[in-house]
Automatic annotation (TrEMBL):
Organism: Ciona savignyi
Keyword annotations from UniProtKB, A to Z: Electron transport, Membrane, Mitochondrion, Mitochondrion inner membrane, Respiratory chain, Transmembrane, Transmembrane helix, Transport
Record's subunit section: Component of the ubiquinol-cytochrome c oxidoreductase (cytochrome b-c1 complex, complex III, CIII), a multisubunit enzyme composed of 11 subunits. The complex is composed of 3 respiratory subunits cytochrome b, cytochrome c1 and Rieske protein UQCRFS1, 2 core protein subunits UQCRC1/QCR1 and UQCRC2/QCR2, and 6 low-molecular weight protein subunits UQCRH/QCR6, UQCRB/QCR7, UQCRQ/QCR8, UQCR10/QCR9, UQCR11/QCR10 and subunit 9, the cleavage product of Rieske protein UQCRFS1.
Gene3D superfamilies according to UniProt: Cytochrome b-c1 complex subunit 8 (1.20.5.210)
Location within or outside the cell: Mitochondrion inner membrane
Keyword Transport among record annotations: yes
Pfam families assigned: UcrQ
Function, in words: Component of the ubiquinol-cytochrome c oxidoreductase, a multisubunit transmembrane complex that is part of the mitochondrial electron transport chain which drives oxidative phosphorylation. The complex plays an important role in the uptake of multiple carbon sources present in different host niches.
Single GO BP term: mitochondrial electron transport, ubiquinol to cytochrome c
Name this protein carries in UniProt: Cytochrome b-c1 complex subunit 8
Family classification: Belongs to the UQCRQ/QCR8 family.
Chief site of localization: mitochondrion
Organism taxonomic ancestry: Eukaryota, Metazoa, Chordata, Tunicata, Ascidiacea
Transmembrane segments: 52-70
Length: 89
């Protein structure tokens, strides 16, 4: 592709013309898929984690404590009472 055709159609144009269809194209030289991952992405993940920590942690802790209480109570109720079997032959 000549330099004059790049200036004529714009940098991202690949010169594809299709009638009665809308076609969007982007040059491989125009975009960077990992641009801003380190500078913007990781701080954003840390910020969102801090913001939603209590929203997730409190119900999870309550669920764990209630499950633990239930399993301990079930184990206590499943034990046999030795006094019930004293008179067995």
């Amino acid at each position: 592709m000549r330099l004059s055709s790049i200036y004529k159609h714009g940098f991202g144009s690949l010169g594809v013309t299709v009638d009665k269809q809308i076609v969007y194209t982007m040059s491989a030289m125009e975009h960077n898929p990992i641009k801003g991952v380190v500078s913007k992405g990781f701080p954003n993940v840390i910020r969102r984690t801090k913001e939603s920590f209590l929203v997730v942690a409190i119900p999870a802790l309550l669920c764990y404590l209630s499950y633990d209480w239930g399993t301990k109570l079930q184990a206590k109720l499943d034990r046999k009472d030795p006094k019930m079997y004293e008179n067995d032959v």
